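Tokens as discussed.
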């Protein structure tokens, strides 16, 4: 009887917190999308479509297709094998350049945020990369690596890496110094500081850099193909422009925009997994 009573007492103390409150397992809430998350973008799309259609009809120009003409061209373009071949060519440089930018930019940004001496050396070069238009680097690319695949990868890398570095650096610098001092007072070493404080605290800023870097990477991919190497999506855009096919031209641009949105959405999903403590509005 004593044993049963002690077990009941132990269960009561572990299963209850105060009088009248019992332990209840936390149930995971299903994330149901809100109505405004669907209705607002849909309403915006409808407004854009109406304004586009009316404006194109009023302009009556061969160079400005209507919304319906663009949608029709987009439907035909999706079933055109040339589109998928162009996307495959362009995305090769996008994937390689973006991946290298992440492997270089994230560790470098974290190190610059932590070590002031290293930051003092690198900050002038970061300022130059932030202020110089990346399109102006194309002649230097031609002189250094030619106009092949390496130039396209390097251009995507340059468009992406600076954004990744700056956001990773900001993530480390925004850590509360009191947390670091407290960890130091309890005997934490540098490795423990990184594992327990610095890296978890910098994840949100790093993921912001990844998302911004994706948009910059897509921009660099298209710019280098338009101005340097007529390949992939850039080649399609130039071809439709040369043969005065505005519907197909606009449809190709829409494809690029849709790809960017899909990539950013995937980055948002990754951010939710990497930093689940963030509110949805801040992601």
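Sequence:
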């Amino acid at each position: 009887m004593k044993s049963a009573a002690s077990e009941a007492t132990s269960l009561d103390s572990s299963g209850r917190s105060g009088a009248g409150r019992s332990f209840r397992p936390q149930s995971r809430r299903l994330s149901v999308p809100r109505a405004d998350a669907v209705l607002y973008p849909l309403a915006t799309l409808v407004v854009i479509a109406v304004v586009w259609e009316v404006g194109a009809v009023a302009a009556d120009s061969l160079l400005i297709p209507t919304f319906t003409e663009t949608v029709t061209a987009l439907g035909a373009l999706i079933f055109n094998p040339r589109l998928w071949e162009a996307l495959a060519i362009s995305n090769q440089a996008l994937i390689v350049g973006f991946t290298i930018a992440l492997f270089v930019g994230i560790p470098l940004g974290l190190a610059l945020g932590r070590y002031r001496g290293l930051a003092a050396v690198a900050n002038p070069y970061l300022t130059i990369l932030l202020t110089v238009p990346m399109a102006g680097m194309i002649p230097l690319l031609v002189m250094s690596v030619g106009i092949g695949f390496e130039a396209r990868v390097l251009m995507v890398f340059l468009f992406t890496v600076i954004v990744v570095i700056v956001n990773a650096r900001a993530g480390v610098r925004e850590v509360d110094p009191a947390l670091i001092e407290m960890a130091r007072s309890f005997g934490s070493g540098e490795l423990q500081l990184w594992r327990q404080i610095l890296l978890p605290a910098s994840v949100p800023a790093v993921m912001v850099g990844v998302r911004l870097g994706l948009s910059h990477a897509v921009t660099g991919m298209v710019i280098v193909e338009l101005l340097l190497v007529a390949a992939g999506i850039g080649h399609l855009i130039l071809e439709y422009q040369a043969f005065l096919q505005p519907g197909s031209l606009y449809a190709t641009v829409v494809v690029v925009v849709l790809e960017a949105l899909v990539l950013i959405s995937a980055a948002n999903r990754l951010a939710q997994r990497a930093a689940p403590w963030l509110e949805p509005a801040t992601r």
